[in-house]
Specification:
The chain folds into two domains: 214 residues, Rossmann fold; 73 residues, Alpha-Beta Plaits. 35% of the residues lie in helices and 29% in strands. It contains eleven helices and 13 strands. A six-stranded mixed beta sheet has the order 5-6-7-3-8-9, with helices on both faces. Strands 11-12-10-13 form a four-stranded antiparallel beta sheet, sandwiched between helices. α5 runs parallel beside α6. The longest helix has 17 residues. The protein starts with a strand and ends in a 9-residue tail after the last helix.
Length: 300
């Protein structure tokens, strides 16, 4: 594995607030990484440090083995697009793209044109006077068309409506298929971006809670549904991270892979097994970290 980004024991404090607490991760080159966590978990701070916009209190962030601070050859290989991206007062969308073309040597003019048309970006309008959705459209267009070696998207697509977000996701997937590179998607819309990401990083209260490939992570849990008694009996002694009662029925989210014997027992008792969505699993694991692990209980 070749790491595009290596972060070791990274700490960032703002007076009494700890934004990052000894964070250590490696982002493998050439993958799309999902960066998730609640507001204030440290996601933006982490990306800001890696892109040399913020200095850490302690620890180290390396990009391709180099410190990014005041290191032009490294900085030129990265693109950081965030929600509410700031632009000069008089800058029009047309000019924003012109400047970006000059800065990013691998700029994809055809993709720029496609996104401008697909998201109906008004090229002659000042970016600061655009709607939130139009502003977001400018940002994601720069991020994708830049074809930077590493691109960070910090929630810029939240301002897009559902149709425009789908345009973004489809364009990202197609562009990545043609030109694989390292992309980091920070989002609260976990299930929307889940099909795109290969690796999942979750920050919780300034620390790394999860750092695992998506398929392995999803295999860590299953949702068992049926009459409460048989479900409780099956879950006895297992780690339960989610519980939903529906009259006489019960749905439990159970940690741990299900064996062939487990699945045969479930089928014999008429219980249903469903996969757990990435968003459900991230929420469950975040709650578990706050409350401590729960275990199954025998039927009453």
């Amino acid at each position: 594995m070749t790491a595009a980004v290596s972060v070791n024991q990274l700490v960032k404090r703002y007076r009494r607030t700890v934004a990052l607490d000894r964070v250590s991760i490696e982002l493998e080159e050439g993958l799309i990484h999902g960066l998730f966590g609640h507001n204030g978990a440290g996601k933006t701070t982490l990306m800001s440090i890696v892109t040399a916009q913020v200095l850490p209190t302690s620890g180290r962030a390396l990009v391709y083995g180099q410190r990014p601070y005041e290191h032009a050859p490294v900085l030129e290989r990265m693109c950081f697009i965030r929600e509410g991206q700031g632009y000069p007062n008089d800058l029009r969308a047309r000019d924003a793209f012109k400047v970006a073309r000059m800065f990013y040597p691998n700029w994809d003019k055809a993709l720029e044109k496609h996104l401008i048309e697909a998201m109906d970006i008004p090229l002659n309008r000042r970016v600061r006077r655009m709607s939130r959705g139009q502003n977001s459209a400018v940002g994601v267009t720069v991020g994708l068309a830049s074809r930077a070696n590493i691109t960070f998207f910090d929630e810029p697509y939240l301002g897009l409506d559902a149709m425009a977000r789908q345009v973004f996701y489809e364009a990202l997937a197609a562009s990545y298929a043609r030109d694989p590179r390292t992309i980091v998607l920070s989002s609260h819309l976990i299930d929307e971006v889940a099909p795109l990401v290969a690796n999942v990083v979750v920050l919780d209260h300034a620390r790394v809670l999860i750092d695992q490939d998506r398929q392995s992570l999803l295999g860590r849990a299953a949702r068992v549904i049926g009459l409460a008694g048989p479900v409780e009996q099956f879950a006895y002694g297992r780690e339960v991270i989610g519980r939903e009662a529906m009259g006489p029925y019960l749905a439990l989210t159970i940690m741990g892979p299900l064996t062939a014997t487990d699945r045969a027992a479930l089928a014999a008792t008429g219980l249903t097994v469903e996969s757990v969505s990435l968003q459900q699993l991230v929420i469950h694991l975040t709650r578990r970290a706050a409350a401590g692990p729960a275990t199954g209980r025998p039927a009453l």
